[in-house]
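Our example copied in:
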Amino acid sequence: MASDPNAPRSRRALLAAAAGGAAAFAATTALPLTAAAADGDPVLVGAEHTGGSETSLVITSADPLDPQAAFRAHNTDADAAGVIGASGDETLASEDTPFTGVYGWSVADPVDAIGSGVWGDSPDSGVVGTGSVGVLGLGGVGVWGDGSGAPGVIGDSDSATVAGVLARGATATGLGLSVVGKAKFSRSGRHTIGAGRSSLTIALNGTTSGSKVFAVLNSNRSGRYVRAVVPTTNSFTVYLNAAVTSASYVAWFVLD
């Protein structure tokens, strides 16, 4: 015979039901935290999980004044990465990832060989690296910059002594810089010496009396040549051995 839900219940029965509910709540709070996996199985720390579709974590109530990460992985062992992401065959993936926050692995693209271990994409900066070395590239090509309508690689410096980009040979005789194609320098140019003149002063910020300035006649003038180039503060003067009889070009280049 089914019990009547409206029938009066004893005080002892009510206390027993309350105790049972509290025990059930305590049991659920003692379980490990889980996230919904792609196939409906819970994701538990310390276990391996396999699914046939994508698993995602979404933060829906982030406080703009206190932003929270959607996913955080912290490995207290510095001898292994905090997060490892891999795509395709992992045969050649490194098993040694000490002192690495995120390790990414991918096989090569069979069409154009640009498989990416890590891909960063943003309307601003796709990848930002900070530290004593912001970005370290190792391999057949350490860093490859491909510019389409913009420079492939930019190095900035506001220092008069620290370079924006340093190209360095591994030894004193090692090749520091190799350029394939044209090279363009902002501290070079071509100016005209007017007819009847034998010298030309060119203003250029940053030059000093110790600057290395080179100049040659860029027009064919028989018996005429550059006799000297004398730099000074923010300018330099090109001297010919004699005045030219018609307007002539002088090409120049400043090293420092």
In short: The chain is about 10% helix and 20% strand. Helices lie at 11-30. The first strand starts at residue 35 and ends at 36.
